[in-house]
Amino acid sequence: MSIEVAARPHTHGAGEVPPKTKSQLLRSFDPAEFPALNGREEEWRFTPIKRLAGLDDADTAPAKAAVAYTARALPEGVTVEAVGKDDERVGSILTPFDRPSAVAWAKTDKALLVSVAPEAEIAEPVWIDVTGGGLDGASWAHTYIEVGHHADVTLIMRHTGAARLGDNIEIAVGDSARLRLVSVAEWDRESVQVEHQKARLGTDARLDHIAVSLGGDLVRQYLSIDYAGRGGSVDAFGLYFADTGQHLEHRQLVDHSVPDCRSYVNYRGALQGETAHTVWVGDVLIQDAATGTDTYEINRNLVLSDGARADSVPNLEIETGEIVGAGHASATGRFDEEHLFYLQSRGIPEDEARRLVVKGFFNEIVQKIPSERLREELTETIVARLDAGPVLGSANVAEGGAGSAA
């Protein structure tokens, strides 16, 4: 089925709550409550504001064709439909805490509702294709994903085509339910996406979240998570590969506010080409009431050529000492020459050795993707990008190989 989420002005009562972290100085559904972005704000200092394509401005003209959401054959127990924003579920989890998210809320009057029935066990992944409608204006969308208690499901959202999209996604995982959510950004080169995902986990609920960013000119995804009951568990994995001129940015805020919950964050990125830029910012807050918390976050970046820049900022705020464990790590570097030497000493050509090192670097994350076909396609994309890049591509041109300009 194909559902288009309309993009036209809509108003909603504004509301604020006291800030908990530097990322939540203000929460409101009203874009007017947020000052215009200037790039000097702490949470926007890495982002090239001029490349947001108007997604931070409520006066930006809408695109002629809306972004289309197409659900493939749905199994029993899963429904996908468009609902009005007057549905009591919509807006119950996510209150925007930045200007683009508030604009996305204000510019949509419908939401895509993905619902999984309680106790449903869905064997095969549920696919939703998100297809861009063009670059002649901006698009906005809202998605609400609800997984009923004791249900088990895998949902894959794959973004392709050309678009300038600002969207919000709310994720409700019921008690003792499990959701594996894979979000893949394979946009055309000139596309822009600014997205806020907010997940809330019930008692003993589990979320496996996997974010993959490969396409687009600028992609900025903010994932925030909180817990509604004890025993909630989150594993958040990310994979990104930035090429010449691309800006790929991932931020997380994991808010531990109840006891006995866990979180694990592991993002890996590679960069090649002039002005390729990646940003990872991981915020974990352990509130005073969240005794028994177990959390860890790690980010690793592989810089493949000169002119690329990776910013990595782990943050950990702890308000109680009664926890199981908490930690973070970050590392950015180039090819491990010892690995290359080891492979070459066993007769593997240098180019193939470099491919193997990059594939090995990403393999831990790739293997978390619960679809063999998608794993293979993404690996092929990564290898093709590496072959066409400044490290291997120049060698191919010199040799008249696949990367030549023929």
Helix count from the secondary structure assignment: 5
Task: Give the overall form.
Answer: globular
Strand elements, count: 19
Sheet/helix structural class: mainly beta
Number of domains: 2
- Work out the helicity level: 10-25%
Strand order of the largest sheet: 1-2-5-7-9-11-13-15-17-19
Q: Mean pLDDT, nearest integer?
A: 90
* Whole-angstrom Rg: 21 Å
- Reading the helices and strands in chain order gives EEEHEEEEEEEEEEEEEEEEHHHH
Strand content: 35-45%
Through-space gap between termini: 42 Å
Largest sheet: 10 strands, mixed
Question: Which ranges are low-confidence, i.e. pLDDT below 50, for 5 or more consecutive residues?
Answer: 1-16, 395-406
How would you explain this protein's 3D organization?
The chain is mainly beta. It folds into 2 domains: 2-334, no CATH class; 336-406, no CATH class. The protein has helices spanning 99-106, 337-344, 350-366, 372-388, 393-399; strands at 2-4, 68-71, 78-84, 110-116, 126-131, 139-147, 152-160, 164-173, 178-185, 192-201, 206-213, 218-227, 233-242, 247-256, 262-271, 277-286, 294-303, 309-318, 325-333. The longest helix has 17 residues, at 350-366. The chain is globular, with a radius of gyration of 21 Å. The N and C termini lie far apart (42 Å).
Summarize the entry for a quick read.
By secondary structure, the protein is mostly beta strands. The protein has helices spanning 99-106, 337-344, 350-366, 372-388, 393-399, and strands spanning 2-4, 68-71, 78-84, 110-116, 126-131, 139-147, 152-160, 164-173, 178-185, 192-201, 206-213, 218-227, 233-242, 247-256, 262-271, 277-286, 294-303, 309-318, 325-333.
